[in-house]
Amino acid sequence: MSILDKINNLDRRWIYLLAWVFVLFPLLNPLGLPIPISQDARTWYDYVENEINDGDVVLFTPMYGVSGMPELFPMTVATMKHLMTKDVQIIVVSFWTEGPLVFNTLLTQVDPTDYGYVYGEDWIRLGYVPGSETAMGSFGANIHNTVTADYVEGRSLSSFPIMENVRTGEDIDVIVSFETGTPGTSEWMRQFNAPFGTPQITGCIGVSVSGMIPYLQSGQLQALMPGLTVSAEYEILLDKPGLAVAGVDAVSTSHVYVTLLVILGNIAYFMTKEED
Amino acid sequence: MSDVLRRIEIPIALTIIACLLQVIPYYVEIPALESAANTASNAVLIIVACATFVGVISIVQVHGKRIQRQSEGWYYSILVIGLVVIMALTGLPLPEMGLGVNNSVYNWLFTNVQTPLGGTMYSILAFFITSAAFRAFRARNLEASIVLVAGTIMVMGNAPLLTNYMPFIADISLWIRSYPNLATMRGVMIGAALGSIALAMRTLMGIERGYLRGGGEE
Fold first, then answer.
1. Which chain A residues touch B131 with a CB distance below 8 Å?
2. What is the H or E stretch that residue B213 is in?
3. CA distance A249 to A257
4. B214 membership: H or E segment, kind and range
5. What distance lies between CA B103 and its chain's CA centroid?
6. Which of A99, A180, B78, B109 is the most exposed place for a label (fewest CB within 10 A)?
7. Which is nearest to A136 in space by CA: A190, A212, A196?
């Protein structure tokens, strides 16, 4: 068997082993590979920095579970840090079962008190609201009826100063959503953007990007953060290198590996085809 | 009486009423209908919340049987049921007893068991995708070649190492995302929306019965 035939029939375990090496090596030995800043990262940074103003009510929604954490958690942390450098009011809610637990993990990395944020006055957690899109619609129509108590203290929403003037979707100035699927941006568009015109920025996993582009192009979505690479660029813009920068070397090496495999596979395919 | 309650017209009528209750207030401002629509929406939330318990019952039934029959890998089922019980108990909203969202066991299990396991499951995709890309991305004909070129450029466009030294890859990748992809996705979305409208109309008119008794005729 020639070397080309061997490549064509390469045992997938070798491919797995090399993939493992290409991912693990840069994680254990950071290479400090270059990270150019893309337009997506710049747009996201500029929107949070310049378009979200002091006093704005921000609906911060981690809409993913543990499977989405490797890709979405770094951008969730970085954006929360960025938001907390401003004087905004942050309402954290999730229509995804594991959302509150993801946010618990976030709180191990971001302490709101470090930014002068007081619970109930500057930020609040409303936990998980079951019911997917129906719940989102109900939440927009009447927040206090849909969520009767906060997630941390179990007190009525009316007893928190931050919620005094926030009663419906109309009182929300911007939605910051991080998501892996449904419910997600499409549902936000139908339940918030269409009836209230609420602007939104979305962080999503790489495979969801193609579905988000129509909303971005139409202007319904103000900014999009697609995946870990752009998260790393955003962390650099923030001057706070974190989880994404630590992982992006592995993204680079693994993508180069896939590209090389595809090129090698095609060379072998054509050369053996000619021989045949 | 029971025959009357089993009539197929009843769930169809309920479906039509529930649909109209949500649709009409969207176009016409009638406070009584809006209030009824909100009540119906809140009822959905309660039903969905109750469905969580169905999930727990289902897990216990499925894994309970596996343990009882000692079928292959039954000991994993003990682990599943054990963890379900521990997570459910420690997460009960009883803060005065030290339970609930701030319970240390509850948070420890999420951070140190569920999170790494979920991440691992997701990461396994990387191996499958790599192997699939190697085997499937072959320029066998024109269509396959287009997919190959577009896919490879998108992969390369997501690698900062490559876009840093070859910025044109990022530009081409952005062009693919912003034009061919956008056009295709819009077509898909409009098609899906039209399909949804057709399905809604069929449901409203009682023609679509797929959700009733497995879709069979009465």
1. 12, 15-16
2. none
3. 12
4. none
5. 28
6. B78
7. A190
pLDDT in tens, A51-102: 999 999 999 999 999 889 989 999 999 999 999 999 999 999 999 989 998 9
Q: What is the pTM of this model?
A: 0.89
* Tens-level pLDDT at each residue, chain A (276 residues): 688 888 888 899 999 999 999 999 999 998 999 999 999 999 999 999 999 999 999 999 999 998 899 899 999 999 999 999 999 999 999 999 899 989 999 999 999 999 999 999 999 999 999 889 989 999 999 999 999 899 998 899 999 999 999 999 999 999 999 999 999 999 999 999 999 999 999 999 998 999 999 999 999 999 999 999 999 999 999 999 999 999 999 999 999 999 999 999 999 998 888 776
pLDDT for the residue B218:
44
- Closest chain B residue by Cα to residue A270: B139
Q: Is the minimum CB–CB distance between A169 and chain B shorter than 8 Å?
A: no
User: Is residue A115 located within the same domain as residue A24?
Assistant: no
CB–CB contact A214 B182 (8 Å): yes
CATH classification at residue A136? 3.40.50
**Range of the structural domain that residue B54 is part of:** 1-90
Cβ–Cβ below 8 Å for A130 and B118: no
> Which residues form the domain of A10?
3-30+250-275
Q: Is residue B143 in a domain? A: yes
A260 and A214 in a common domain: no
Check whether residue A92 and residue A111 sit in a common domain: yes
Residue closest to B178 by CA, chosen among A227, A226, A36: A226
Nearest CA-CA distance, residue B131 and chain A, Å: 6
**ipTM of the complex, rounded to two decimals:** 0.87
The answer to whether residue B68 neighbours chain A at the CB level (below 8 Å) is no
In a shared domain, residues B143 and B81: no
What CA–CA distances, in Å, run from B179 to A179, A203, A225, B186? 24, 21, 18, 10
Q: With the CA atoms of B145, B148, B153 and B158 taken in that order, what torsion angle do they form, in degrees rounded to the nearest 10?
A: 170
Cβ-Cβ contacts under 8 Å between A and B: the total is: 177
Dihedral pair phi/psi, residue A58, rounded to 5°: -110, 125
- The verdict on B77 and B137 lying in the same domain is no
